[in-house]
Each structure stands twice: as C-alpha cells, then as structure tokens.
Design goal:
Chain lengths: ~600, ~600
C-alpha cells in the first residue's frame, strides 16, 4: 500500500523563509495572515488529504467510475465521503471572494492544497479543481446576477463545474468547434453537439453540475472569433436558486483511459440543452484563455504532486528493501543484505527526483504569488510586471513540471524493480496518473509554442526582458556571497544559455518561423532549468541563514546538498538545449511527409 | 485500432547491405542462405505476426489472463490460435539445432522475428521467447538424455518453458534464494518454495510447461555458490516422452500489472514438486548467466519493437489528423486545417523516434551476429572477439534500447494528444507494455553496473579495447570519404567522450568504487549513443552506395537525413553524460540515508 505524508514543513519553509507571504501584506487577503494561521491552514489541509483522499486512491484506481445504463455515473467507494470532508472544510473556497462565501485567502495557499490533494488522490482532486476553474471563469465573465446564482453553491462544493472545449475532431485547434447554440428568444440558448474528454462530466458527488461549454452561435463568424461561452447546468437553476428540470445534457460514455480512473472522463452529448451566454457573444475563447494561467499552473502542480508521492514511497522502499552489498563493503553486516539506498544508482534516482521536487514546489509558489499580485495588487506597475512574469513562466511550469514529474515517477517506479510494475505497490498508478498532465490543458508541445511564439514576442519582449533583468540582478546582488558562489556560477551559466537562445530566436525565427517551432521544446526546458536553478539559490540562501541560527541542521545540509546536486547534474543540460535550438529546423523539416 | 506492418524492407537492407549475412558464409547455418531465402523467411515471419499476433494485441490487453479457481490459467481469446500458427510454422526452432528438430538457421534471423513478434503482440511473444530461452539453457547444460527428452517438444512448441529465479525477498540478489531442493535418492529432487513474477508460468497454450528453477540443495553453501538449476515439469515426463502425473507446482495467483496483460505473470508455488538437476550441483547461477546475453538482447529488442509499432501509428496519425496551420502558411488550404505533421514539434518527435529505431535495429542485428559468430565460428580468435564484443554491448543494448524505446512510446503517445491517453487508439498500451523491458532480465541500473563493474575490467579491459579499436579503425578507413565526413565528425566526438569516460573510471574508480557506480548509468547511455552513431555511419555508407546506383532514392534520402539528424540532435548528449560521469559520487553519496 503506498503512503503519503504532505510536505508541510517544506511548504512552511518556503512561505516563511524563501517567499515570505508577510512581504505581501499590502495584498488583499494577505494582511491578516499570521505565521500561526498559515501553519494551521496548511496542517489542516494536509490532514484532510492524508485521512480522506489518500486512503481511497489505489482502490479508486482499481474500481474506476461506472456509467449506469440510464447515464448516471457512480464514483469509486469512499470518494463521496472524501469529497464531502473536503468541501465541508471550506477548501474549495479557500481563496474565493468572501462576497460569494469564500475565505478570501491567498490563491498561493490554494495551490499548496492543489499539491497535497493531487499527491493524495489526483483523480479525486480534479472534481474540486475543475469546480474552482469554472467559478473562477464565472467570477471574471458572468453578469452580477449569474454570479449570485451560480457561484455560491460551487464555492460550497454542492455543485461542481466542468470545462467543455474538446470535440472529436478538435482539441488544440478550437476554431474547428462544431457545437451549435441557438437563441431561444427568452435569453436562453439551445446547445447541441458532442464534447469529449470532459473531466468530471457526470458523477454522484454533487447535487448539480455546471457545464461551461464553448459553442458557435448560428450567425457566428468562422474560426476562433465565432466561439461563445455558455453555461449549461445539469439541472436547470431557477431564479431562486432551486433546482428545476433535468437538462438535455448526458454522459454518453466514460472513456477508458491509461490512468486517473477515479475521475469520470466523459463523452458529453448536448441535445438542445438549455444554457445561458456568459460574457459577450463570440468572445468565448478569450473568456476561457483568461483563466488559463491558473488552470495550467494547476496541471503543473499535478506533475510535482505525483513526483512527490512517488518519491516518498521510493525513499521508504530504498531504505527497507535489502538486496546486494554496498560497493564500499557491507553497510548492514548483521542483515542478509544492505538496504538498496547504499547503491549509487538508487541514490542517483532519489537525488534527481528530490532535487527537482523541492525546486518545483518553490517555483510553483513563486508563480502563484505572481498570480496573487496580478489579481490583488493596487499598483498598476506591479500588476503589469506580475502578469508578464506569470504569463511567461506558466507555460514553462506546465510543460517542464509535468514532463519531469512523469519522468520522476518512472524513476521512482524503477527503484522498486519488478515490484514497481505490479499494482500492489501503487507505483505504476503514479506513472499512469502523471502521464495525463503532459497532455491536457494544452499538450506540452503547445506550451512550448505558446512560450516561444506568443509570450516571448508579446509587448516587444517586455516579459522576457523583465525576467532576465530579475535574474541578472538576483545574481549580481549575491556575487560577494562566498557560500553561494558555486551555485551562482551554475545559475549564471544557465542564464547565459537562456539569453543566447533568446537572441538566436530573435535573429533567426523572423525570417524562418520553423526555426522557432523546432527549438521551442528545448527552449521551454532550458527555461525551466534556469527557473528551478533560481529557486535553488533562493532556497540555499535561506538554508544558510537557518544553518547560521543553528536551526534544524540536518535539514539545511540536505537542502544545500540538493542544491549542489542540481547545479552539478541538472543545470548543465542547458548547454545541450542551446545546441539543439541553434541547430534550427533545416534537417528536422527537410523530409516530405510521405517519407514518414 | 492500432496497426502494424513489419519493417521487412528495412531488415533486408540491413542483412544485405549493412551487415551482409553472406559475409559469414563460413558459419554453420549461414552457408546455404541465399538472398531469396532470407527474403522469403523474413516475409513469411512478418505475415504470421501481422495476421495472427497483432489482431489480438489490444483485445488481449483488455481481457488479460484469468486464473480459474482450480489454478488453471486461461489466456485471452485468439492467443491459442496465434500461438499455434506460430509454432506450426516452425518459428520456435528457427535457429535451433537440426538434431533436435530445429532449422539450424542463424540466430540473427531469430532476433529479427523477435522484433516482429514483440511489435505485433509483446505479451503473446513472450510465451515463445521464454521457451526459446529455456531450451537454449538445456542445450548448454543438460545431459544428452535430458536434451533428447525435453528439447524436441519445446522446439516444436508443444511444451513451453519458464525461468524461475525471483522470490518475494530477492530479485537482483539471487544469493538470498530460499527455495529448497532435497534429493529423493532416485536421481530426482523434491523442490519446495515460492517464486514470483514468473512469466508464462501457467497457461493453456501448450500440453506441458518445463520450469527451470533455481533452488538450494540441503547441503549447499550460502550465497550464490550454493544455487542449483532444476527442471520441474508441470506434468511429469516419462522416459518415453509421454506425460505422467501432474506435478506439485501450481499457479497461486496472477500478478496485476501495468501492462503485458496477455502474459500470465504468476506466483508459482512448489510444494515437494519433482524435478531433475540440470548441470552440476551449486553451479545453477552460472548456467543461468550463460544464456543471459541472448535473453537480454531479447529484452532490448522489445524496447525497439514497442518504439517501432508506436512510431508507425504516430506517423499515420500525424499525417491524418488535421489541426492548426503550418507556421509557414497553410499546407492544405482546401481542408479545415493542416495535418499535424507540418508542425515542427510533431516532426521533432517523429524524427527522434525514427532516428533511434533504424539505428537500434541495426545494432541489434550487429550484436546478434556477434552471438552467431561466438557460437558457430571454428576460429578461436573470432569466437573470443565476438564473445568480448557481445558481452560488452549486450548490457548497453538492454539498458539503452529499453530506456529509449519506452521514452519513444511516450513521445508517440504524445503526438495523439488526448487520444493517446484513451485506450481506443492503443498508444497507451505500447507505453505500459514497453515499461517492463526496463525492469526485467536485470533492471537497467544493474545493466549499467554489469557494464562498468564487470565487463569493462574483465580480462584487463580487453573487450573495451577491442571495441574502441574497431570504431577507431572504422572512422580512420573512411576519413577520406567527403560525403560521410559530417557524420564521422559526430561519431568521432562521441567516441572521444567514451574514451575519456573510460579513462576517468580507470583512474578514479579503483580508489573509490562509488565513482564507478555513480557514473555507470551515464556511461551506459554514452556508450549506447556511440554504438547507435556507429550504426548510422554504416547505414549512411550503404545508402550512399545505393543512391549512386539510383536505387530507391527517396528511401536513401530518408536514411541520410535521419543519420544527419541523429548526429545533430542525439549524439551531442555524450558530452553531458561525460560531464555527469566526471562529477563523480561525492555530492550524490554525501547525505545519510535518513535524510531521504
């Protein structure tokens, strides 16, 4: 049976010493937060994940969701109780506005919970996660009446939400959407079409499901400029908030998937289903895109979350499993064999995973903080800067954290040998669950293209300039710090490669856009290494401070060692990425399609 | 529904132009082989895989194997018919000695079939593959009477074979084996113990199952020097070859696994089961190790096989799926969108997979040829050299081809976006099936350790010297060839890194063996890139020759482009591996175990 303990101390270290929340007391919701309150929230959140989510993770994977002949969907045993514990704890509304029943706390804390819930039970965590995404979209785009009607029950978790974008013939290219909406003359619309891959599309956890659906009005222009956003409830919602008739939206099938079996991924059929328009007509895609940063960050977190829980189990196993002897002589001569953690190759895998996990967690919180600043600061300069940084970094986090998170699950599974391949130990589930994060919310190749094709050139390159200046100043301000020097050298080299790669795109990709496309994936990963390296220097600096104060010395040594390992082993790959980028597209694109 | 077409033309190119079988006419079984015969065999083998194996691959994954309450195991629908077609075609005995009913053909051809069968249906292919492994062990170690009794029905496929090594508490460290054997005084032994992860341990495809079991005699010394090899048939075999009573060996359970669901991976219980000793007492591990090169090569082939079938399906999808427009303007303006193969990042993934697959196939046949030379040459110098090279390269192939094969399946799956995650398209099965190849027959970390700790220092480093000389001479002989120059430069740089890394181990690992352990995995992958690069130069040379003759020009261009891509994108990673190796073990090993 796999285990999970939420990394509470690690989160508190980050929120107190590395990215102190108290430095942002001017932001709405941050001011009243004492360190004790932060700790209480994080510990309580950890508890609900450990006590309710994790125990039904493996069984939920085995049972999966069942669609009954009448179209109802039954979630695995224990999911309802766990979801209820979570929603009754008020976790769905942790950072939602108090006006709608939320607690108004920093969204950064919400993302902490995102990690814990996804580590403990990724499939289950998605029901709440999608609901948060849906009410966030409504908060930004719905009318005051719509907000008042739909948002409070969603924040309470009595109703859940979904996003309906994908159709059989289109995922990335939403301009091809065929689902139609016809105005009924009474302010409502009849929606008809088929949506696929709809997570949490139908289930038995909530009284109602609020579907946000992209569809095309009859007179809409072609392509992406003719897509509108509709709200289609499973049960019609009367003006007093009571539930009315069952709407004509049904689950046609549950997809058979590689993983996240506990989440009902549905084919949703809309047959003249009644809905209302959210925001302006033909501006639906923009409405969806606005909340994309948060949603993508949520998926990035799933990459870390699976890597973290896989690491925890692999570390336990590596210390317990006896097999072979250390190269340097028996470490446990009284036992039939040494624990496998004595073997360098086991150690290598554990170090690789852990030196990623801790930096990834920091980077997520760093990015989440930019989001909080962007949404809550009163200072337009700060908002612009935070928006720039989050817009730039989010595709990097989505692509890199899910790629490396998956790779780490595979490594952690490898530590178990044959036991990693059988279901009993739970490791293969982490691999299967983690795999989807590289695909949904924009496949990672799309993240790379978003980064290079959209985020880099946007506003004349303002965001990347801001980021490079930020890192440059960060390094400069620490150059006299002898203890940080080796780490700074590693970071500096990585940043140098990032600058070179950026310049290369600027001078080559305009004449030949395929050069940008061909190097985009490497650029995203190069960027990710630099950002993770940046976090390691920040964490090492904080660890040195705590070390000087004599606090938790073994833990600080671990941090400093992981930082050194990251710079020694992970960071040098930036050079390889640069080499790939500067090879350009010529050979890659030279074959005709029919040669494949 | 996934598709598969065996790469017959590619195999014929290799066996005719790159590694011509006719150059080895002096070897037993090679002399009579005309090009027409080779082609006929390969085409016929392809046919049985395409017609019988592939159609039941996805359904076999869905159904899995069922253990009935009485312990019998039922394989998925269609497996028996497919297996029968295969065994009746004589494929199990393709390269087995004619004296026992085999066809005596090169084992290299047998490994070609290994790829085809594993691409078409990996789970099904293992029943035959394990049988071949088992009778190969008997051919080397059994007495003449035992050979006559057991081998012919196995070559015929009427009986299958298994390998019973792993126990719940030991996999890699076989010195810990607890299964006991007691002499019964009549030349037979009573075997008692539990074995786990036994592939094809029980099933309904054959009349009898011959289990090869490692166990410990009552008076055996401790550790690996006290392990003997026993043959335990499911049904006792009378001296006339007829089947006697049911033996006390039963399937206690079928493991629930991530993949290869069509293969019955069994917990096998031996309860005073009757067996016979194979070879000398206490020399069982040596007997198992002798055939390990072939078995590991078989697993390496599975890595390529899954990568190949995943590639084929991804290439088809990339040409058919319409989504988005090319960065350079619409390529299919008459259609709603362009096929996704126009996007550089899709192209990148296809190029990465294919430039691996073709080189991996060549390397497998190169390694298999060394095996044929080692077993069939009359010249002791040739035998020693081939043994050295195969011993050195096989762990490289096992580790690298299964790692990269799995990564490629993940890439191919990624090309499908969300459709890659659902079972319908079959891509996620390739990923799940491919995953086991990194683990069994010695986890890849063990391969790396075997390479660095055993194969490098063996005989004073004779094998690695032979290999480096071989590559050095290969490069030197071609240095005046202008057309090959860019490829040779890439290979030369890779070889340089391999030499440096080898020297680094020689000068650092003796004083500190953990340095070798810490760098072993990188060394294995560095070695793999050099070996694959070597194959690309050989293939490019052959392609240039055919190009000059005007033969199949588009195909030669493809080969030359893939070779260039490999040198541009894959080979430079050797520098990163070298950097990792020379960072040594200090930081990696510095934390105490309880810091994890």
């Amino acid at each position: 049976m796999p285990r999970y303990q939420a990394p509470v101390d690690e989160v508190l270290f980050l929120l107190t010493h590395v990215l102190p929340l108290k430095d942002h007391a001017d932001l709405q919701g941050f001011g009243d937060l004492s360190p004790d309150m932060i700790e209480a929230i994080v510990r309580e959140g950890a508890q609900v994940c450990e006590d309710f989510f994790q125990p039904v993770n493996a069984s939920g994977d085995r049972q999966g969701c069942q669609r009954l002949p009448d179209g109802r969907v039954v979630t695995p045993e224990g999911f309802k109780a766990a979801y209820d514990a979570y929603r009754k704890g008020g976790w769905l509304g942790l950072s939602a506005p108090e006006a709608y029943g939320g607690q108004g706390l920093p969204n950064t804390l919400n993302h902490v919970m995102g990690e814990f819930t996804a580590s403990a039970n990724m499939a289950l965590s998605m029901y709440g996660g999608l609901t948060q995404g849906a009410f966030a979209a409504l908060l930004q785009h719905a009318s005051p009446e719509q907000k008042a009607l739909y948002i409070p029950p969603m924040i309470e978790g009595r109703w859940t939400g979904t996003m309906n974008l994908t159709e059989p013939h289109c995922g990335t290219d939403l301009g091809l959407i065929k689902t139609r909406a016809t105005a009924l003359g009474d302010g409502t619309y009849a929606i008809t079409g088929q949506k696929i891959f709809i997570s949490a599309g139908e289930h038995d956890l909530a009284d109602n499901i609020i579907h946000l659906v992209l569809a095309r009005l009859s007179d809409a222009p072609e392509g992406t400029r003719g897509i509108s956003l509709f709200l289609v409830p499973k049960f019609w919602v009367n003006v007093d908030g009571s539930l009315g008739e069952r709407n004509h939206v049904t689950c046609g099938a549950i997809e058979h998937k590689m993983g996240i079996h506990g989440n009902a991924t549905c084919v949703m059929n809309y047959d003249q289903a009644k809905g209302v328009l959210i925001g302006e007509a033909n501006r639906g895609l923009q409405a969806m895109f606005v909340m994309m940063n948060e949603a993508r960050l949520g998926v990035a977190i799933q990459g870390l979350a699976q890597s973290e829980v896989a690491y925890q189990n692999a570390a336990i196993y590596a210390k317990e499993r006896l097999q072979g002897r250390a190269l340097t002589g028996a470490s446990a001569p009284d036992k039939p064999a040494d624990p496998i953690i004595v073997h360098p190759d086991i150690r290598r895998m554990l170090m690789e995973i852990r030196s990623f996990n801790e930096a990834a967690r920091a980077l997520i919180l760093w990015d989440a903080l930019q989001g909080d600043i962007a949404h809550r600061s009163q200072d337009p300069k700060s908002v612009e800067r935070a928006n720039d940084l989050q817009g730039l970094l989010t595709p990097v986090l989505k692509g890199v954290l899910t790629d490396l998170g998956f790779e780490n699950c595979v490594k952690a599974q490898q530590i178990f040998g044959g036991h990693g391949y059988v279901s009993e130990w739970g490791m293969e589930q982490f691999v299967r669950d983690a795999r989807i994060a590289m695909i949904y919310e924009g496949a990672n190749g799309i993240q790379a293209l978003d980064l290079v094709g959209r985020k880099l050139p946007k506003d004349g390159g303002r965001a990347i300039r801001t980021y490079l200046e930020l890192i440059g100043r960060f390094i400069q301000e620490r150059e006299s710090n002898e203890a940080l020097k080796p780490l700074l050298m590693g970071l500096k080299q990585g940043v140098g490669h990032l600058q070179e790669a950026t310049l290369w795109f600027m001078s080559h990709a305009i004449a030949k856009p395929t050069h940008a496309g061909a190097g985009a994936y490497d650029y995203m990963h190069l960027f990710g290494l630099v950002s993770l390296g940046h976090m390691w220097v920040m964490m090492a600096e904080a660890a040195l401070g705590l070390q000087a104060q004599g606090e938790d010395l073994q833990r600080q040594t671990t941090r400093l060692t992981l930082a050194a390992y990251f710079m020694e082993r992970a960071m040098p790959k930036t050079g390889l990425h640069l080499k790939h980028i500067t090879s350009g597209a010529d050979i890659m694109m030279s074959l005709p399609a029919d040669s494949f």
